[in-house]
Specification:
The protein is an alpha/beta fold. The chain has 2 domains: about 170 residues, Quinone Oxidoreductase, Chain A, domain 1 (Alpha-Beta Complex), CATH 3.90.180; about 140 residues, 3-Layer(aba) Sandwich (Rossmann fold), CATH 3.40.50.720. It contains 10 helices and 18 strands. The strands form 4 sheets. Strands 3, 5, 6, 9, 10, 17 and 18 form a 7-stranded mixed beta sheet that branches. It has a 6-stranded parallel beta sheet with strand order 13-12-11-14-15-16, sandwiched between helices. The two termini are about 15 Å apart. The protein binds NADP nicotinamide-adenine-dinucleotide phosphate. The site of NADP nicotinamide-adenine-dinucleotide phosphate has 31 residues, from helix 1, helix 3, helix 4 and strand 12.
């Protein structure tokens, strides 16, 4: 099969396209999927640059994929064969819905071979039906970002359907952020966003945001507070961290929730703890999600006819160029690798 293999830590030259990789064989309880498309996540770039824990190389990167089940191992329902499926990239979460079992839990695409390939083997329990009317590119964009946004908003953030809540999402150029905007809007929340780019703020408004502020402005917190009104947003969804995290505890309403899932701008240098306890703020961490959340998230996108925003589609062999696009930070929407065309 064709695949892109990360050979070492470094620049995009470490992503090597190879059209003579052996097809993986499904073991007991597993399926082999012929992939139609894969999508990038920032995690892929962190791994390539050596900024991720527990890197094992060489490896096929990629957590997002959609494709057709073409072979099933022993003890797998044969009727799965021929089905079009999403892969839940949160592997072996374990039995506690609140936290993964860290002794077995992994994210697809390192250490397990990922989706930058024509075929992949995963446990049959990881696949969920994907409707035929989704394009491969749109479908591939959904799994990791959709799952992360769903758990952050619904399970951790406490977002309720029709609950008239307000949500503030940082860095709307990010893949997870955009899905958070889509989910929260569809649930009837008022969604406010931040971005480094006025053009992305305009895109976000067109996609359903109520308002947006440019976080490059010195007083973006004041602007956000004036725009949102009242006591501030009920829920904040953030992956920037750094100094921003302290600003978000300032911005959220008393008794509100700040849910963080990343630290794109680095560790938080200072947190005004007095604000945290005086305002009775819940500061919550979240990562990925469990199988039930993945099913609920895909059901939600399908039943509400919401589609992820795809900005760039490149052929699999151009994975290095796709990484460069992600690192440029210019995108609004997911970057997808087309595999079957
Ligand atoms: N824990 C988890 O389960 C999980 C899952 C997925 C991702 N993550 C992490 O979450 C982060 C985002 O991932 P992604 O794949 O969505 O990445 P991405 O698509 O590359 O998005 C990164 C975004 O961060 C925003 N940003 C940068 N500096 C910011 C700042 N000072 N304030 C607010 N926003 C800022 C930018 O938004 P603008 O372009 O609008 O300026 C940028 O587009 C990464 O650190 C990733 O590792 C964690």
């Amino acid at each position: 099969m064709r695949a892109v293999i990360l050979q070492g830590v470094g620049g995009t030259e470490q992503l090597v396209y190879d059209d003579h990789v052996a097809d993986p064989q499904p073991g007991p309880g597993q399926v082999r999927i012929r992939l139609q498309a894969a999508a990038l996540n920032h995690r892929d770039v962190w791994i390539r640059r050596g900024l991720y824990a527990g890197i094992t190389l060489p490896v096929i990167l990629g957590s997002d994929g959609v494709g057709i089940v073409e072979a099933v191992g022993e003890r797998v329902d044969a009727s799965l064969s021929g089905k079009r499926v999403w892969i839940n990239p949160s592997l072996s979460w374990g039995s506690d819905p609140r936290i993964p079992d860290y002794s077995i839990w992994r994210i697809l695409g390192m250490p397990d071979p990922g989706t930058y390939a024509e075929a992949i083997v995963v446990d049959a329990a990881q696949v969920v039906d994907c409707p035929a009317d989704w394009t491969s590119e749109t479908a591939a964009a959904l799994p990791l970002a959709g799952l992360t946004a769903w758990r952050a908003l619904v399970s951790r953030g406490g977002l309720k359907e029709g609950g008239h809540q307000s949500v503030f999402v940082t860095g709307i150029g990010g893949g997870v952020s955009q899905m958070a905007l889509q989910i929260a809007s569809a649930m009837g929340a008022k969604v406010y966003v931040s971005s480094s780019s006025d053009a992305k703020l305009a895109d976000a408004m067109a996609a359903g945001a109520t308002g947006g502020v440019n976080y490059r402005h010195e007083d973006w917190v004041g602007r956000a507070r004036a725009m949102i009104g009242g006591d501030g947003p009920d829920i904040v969804i953030d992956s920037a961290a750094g100094k921003t995290l302290d600003d978000l505890v300032d911005l959220v309403r008393p008794g509100g929730r700040v849910v963080n899932y990343g630290q794109t701008t680095g560790p938080c240098p200072r947190l005004e703890v007095r604000r945290l306890f005086w305002k009775q703020v819940d500061l919550l961490g979240t990562t990925m999600g469990n199988a039930e959340e993945f099913q609920a998230m895909t059901d939600f996108f399908v039943s509400r006819k919401i589609r992820p925003v795809v900005r760039h589609v490149l052929p699999l062999k151009d994975a290095a160029a796709a990484h460069e696009l992600m690192e440029s930070g210019e995108q609004f929407g997911k970057i997808v690798l087309s595999i079957d065309s």
